[in-house]
Design brief:
Blueprint: H1 3-29, E1 36-41, H2 43-46, H3 67-75, E2 78-81, E3 113-117, H4 125-140, H5 146-151, H6 154-177, E4 182-186, H7 211-232, E5 235-237, H8 273-287
Parallel strand pairs: 1-2, 1-3, 3-4, 4-5
Helix pairs in contact: 3-8, 6-7
Length: 290
């Protein structure tokens, strides 16, 4: 081969190698960094009742198919999941069980994303309201509003006076522990329909007049989560619209929340696998992830 032809070949080859190297460098420079993601919260975050159960901490009844795991799998995030069934806002800064550290201990300045669902267990709001109204509904044969008549504004008063300030304090602790993170506080998907469904009484034995009463208590809880998020700089993920028609009275395959009786989950009145997936999807939409 003539020298000038060989020279042109070598020059072209060098240029091609250089372009490839530049392209690889450019691609690396523009690659999306992996999110360091920490999931906090209670049983709605933990996916309690959804199989399979995380064997590393059976006390927390945490599922490996909960919404944090769905988000991590969809985004490629590095997940540290410290969600725990029955957690209250106080367990962000206090140990919930021996060997279960305060949840904010999982956070650091390197945390990029935090999600949480919390507040429903403060004052035992969920369990007390569901138990009280379920018992009253059975005794009344589903008639009237015996739970509302007996308890009046007591649940709402606890939410406003106790849960609301506790939520703000807990979110501030999260912000302090993860100052560079985007923090998403999720609302709770609807447990009951807006109005009584007589066909649902065997699954959710709430008296007709108490169905909107319970719905109002949950709406109030979601409202204080939203207010606390706004006042601390967190992003509130609202499920009021997207979970409509997916409450515990709906059929399997449609409902996101399992009923109190005759459900298909180990833990009643909690999200099923479909609910956890839909919570993940809506959260990713709200945060622009995916």
């Amino acid at each position: 081969m003539p020298k000038h032809a060989l020279s042109r070949v070598m020059t072209a080859s060098a240029a091609a190698v250089g372009a490839l190297a530049l392209g690889l460098t450019d691609a690396t420079a523009h690659a999306t960094p992996t999110l360091d993601y920490v999931a906090l919260g209670d049983s709605y975050s933990a996916g309690s009742g959804v199989l399979p159960i995380d064997p590393t901490n059976l006390l927390c009844l945490r599922s490996t198919a909960n919404y944090p795991h769905v988000i991590a799998a969809s985004t490629g995030a590095r997940l540290k999941d410290v969600t725990c069934g029955a957690a209250q806002t106080s367990h962000f800064t206090e140990a919930q069980y021996p060997g279960v550290a305060p949840q904010v201990n999982a956070l650091s300045a390197g945390t990029d994303l935090v999600t949480l669902t919390i507040g429903g267990n403060d004052n035992s709001t969920f369990i007390n309201a569901i138990t009280a109204c379920g018992s009253a509904g059975v005794l009344s044969g589903g008639k009237g509003s015996p739970c509302k008549d007996r308890h009046g504004t007591s649940f709402d008063d606890q939410i406003e006076n106790n849960t609301y300030p506790a939520l703000k304090a807990a979110l501030r602790e999260v912000m302090d522990a993860a100052p560079n993170a985007r923090v998403a506080a999720l609302g709770y998907p609807w447990i009951t329909p807006a109005a009584a469904d007589p066909s649902c009484f065997l699954k959710l034995p709430i008296a007709a007049g108490d169905v909107p009463y319970l719905r109002g208590i949950q709406a109030h809880l979601n409202d204080v989560v939203e207010r606390a998020a706004e006042e601390t700089g967190a992003t509130f993920v609202d499920f009021a619209q997207v979970s409509e028609g997916h409450d515990a009275c709906e059929a399997p395959g449609t409902r996101w929340i399992e009923p109190l009786l005759f459900g298909h989950s180990l833990v009643p009145v909690h999200p099923n696998a479909l609910g956890e997936r839909r919570m993940a999807e809506h959260t990713m939409d709200a945060l622009g992830l995916g």
